[in-house]
Amino acid sequence: MKARFGKVAVLFGGSSAEREVSLMSGAAVLAALQHAGVDAHAFDPAERDLHILKEEGFDRVFIALHGRGGEDGTVQGALELMGIPYTGSGVMASAISMDKWRTKMVWLAAGLPTPRYAILDADTDWAAVVADLGLPIFVKPAHEGSSMGATKVVEAAQLRAAWELAARYDSLVIAEEFVSGQELTAPFLEDRVLPLVRIVAPDGNYDYQNKYFTDVTRYDCPCGLPEAEEQALQALVMKSARVLGCRGWGRADLILTEDGKPYLLEMNTSPGMTGHSLVPMSASVAGLSFEALCLELLKGARLG
């Protein structure tokens, strides 16, 4: 195994708002790779300059970073320049997928369904946004994940405060109409969409705390949908990934309304790999252990 992959760096930690989650993801991936006999080493870009990867002769990189500085194309670009193959999507797809606004524009241009939205700033006509999108409204930073800085606005008077919170994380803030239905997530591995996971959070509140640090959220995998319906959603997810240029692996989040209409929410190009993460859960149902999943992802490391 050591000869097959060479010297491998697992990038985790970083300096984004999702550092804590990344530390958990990376530690799990590192342990799995080492257990499988891979010559894998921890590498935190917040503590060591990336050029050290080249100096120390790393042959490939497993990216377990989340958020800006790791999932947005910047690290991917640096690795391209150094000629070191890496897991996941390339520069362009990573950058677009990290930007919720531009992801929506690409999906809409391709005719794919996604909830209506508005961009918020200090000069926003708050009443007009409420009139257009209705209530509730989800307000979130355009370049953060893990529900960082996100608010579910249920009263018009809360909208400005929600924008102010999101603006602490990002200069670009998006408001999205609330679409009621089943919350689903669909991981993909190369050209294969894994089983969908249905997320049942307390009071529908799938926030940062309930994602990573509690056991009150229920995850159903298999998701319970009829086979034909799940296959149709898997095809939609694969198309949503392809139009963004994604490769390797990722995870699309979506809502399925009571009348069977799907809405794409966002694309994750470096999903969590923690004990609460959904890609490993889905992969397990598909017959892939966590260790086998990590090896499969590492095998797909590439440039360009």
Automatic annotation (TrEMBL):
Q: In which pathway does it act?
A: Cell wall biogenesis; peptidoglycan biosynthesis
According to its UniProt record, the EC number is 6.3.2.4
Q: State whether keyword Cell cycle applies.
A: no
Swiss-Prot/TrEMBL keywords: ATP-binding, Cell shape, Cell wall biogenesis/degradation, Cytoplasm, Ligase, Magnesium, Manganese, Metal-binding, Nucleotide-binding, Peptidoglycan synthesis
Among the GO biological process terms of this entry, one is:
cell wall organization
Keyword Hydrolase (UniProt): no
Q: Write down how the cofactor binds this protein.
A: Binds 2 magnesium or manganese ions per subunit.
Q: Where in the cell is it found?
A: Cytoplasm
Looking up Pfam families in the UniProt record yields: Dala_Dala_lig_C, Dala_Dala_lig_N
Which residues does the record give as Mg(2+) 1 binding sites? D253, E266
Named from the GO MF annotations, one term is: D-alanine-D-alanine ligase activity
Give the transmembrane region(s): none
Catalytic residues of the enzyme: E18, S146, S277
Residues the record lists as binding Mg(2+) 2? E266, N268
Q: Provide the catalytic activity annotation.
A: 2 D-alanine + ATP = D-alanyl-D-alanine + ADP + phosphate + H(+)
InterPro entries in the record: ATP-grasp (IPR011761), ATP_grasp_subdomain_1 (IPR013815), D-Ala_lig_Van_CS (IPR000291), D_ala_D_ala (IPR005905), Dala_Dala_lig_C (IPR011095), Dala_Dala_lig_N (IPR011127), PreATP-grasp_dom_sf (IPR016185)
- Please give the chief subcellular localization of this protein: cytoplasm
Q: Which residues form the ATP-grasp domain?
A: 104-299
Q: Which cofactor does it need?
A: Mn(2+); Mg(2+)
Q: Which GO terms describe its cellular component?
A: cytosol
Function summary: Cell wall formation.
Q: Record's family?
A: Belongs to the D-alanine--D-alanine ligase family.
Q: What is this protein called?
A: D-alanine--D-alanine ligase
What broad taxonomic lineage does this protein's source fall under?
Bacteria, Pseudomonadati, Pseudomonadota, Betaproteobacteria, Rhodocyclales
